[in-house]
Amino acid sequence: MLILECPYCGVTAEETEFHGGGEAHIKRYGPGSTEEEFNNYLFAKVNPKGVHFERWRHANGCGKWFHAARNTVTLEVYGTYTAQTSDIPQDIKDKVSAKVPGWSWREFE
Fold first, then answer.
1. Residue 74 belongs to a domain with what CATH number?
2. 109 within some domain
């Protein structure tokens, strides 16, 4: 079970309090996009084993979307931050680098 903290209202709870919304920091395509862009957005997911950045919504609380950095193997949560943050906070990068030596950062769109 994941334990997440909402960066807006400060509630710390089990993942059942929240709702997952897919990968964070990707460009989302919709109306007006090409077929290839929309197809890649829907089906071409990275889905890494290990460190992953995701979108979550505090469904049973304040209702706001936020981002979480976690490890898909160990279920360790490195931290959460607001959805309006376009760059991953340095403190979260430091936590990930300390726990997963040699892990490389990929470029986010």
1. 3.30.2270.10
2. no
SS3 per residue for 40-71: HHHHCCCCCCCEEEEEEECCCCCCCEEEEEEE
pTM for this entry: 0.86
Answer whether residue 86 is part of any domain. yes
When divided into structural domains, the chain yields a total of 1
46: left (phi over 0), alpha (psi -120 to 50) or beta: alpha
Q: Which pLDDT tens digit goes with each residue over 79-95?
A: 999 999 888 999 999 99
> Is residue 104, in this structure, part of any structural domain at all?
no
Q: Decide if 51 contacts 33 (C-beta within 8 A).
A: no
Model confidence pLDDT, tens digit, residues 50-70: 999 999 999 999 999 999 999
* DSSP code at position 5: E
Amino acid code (one letter) for 83 = A
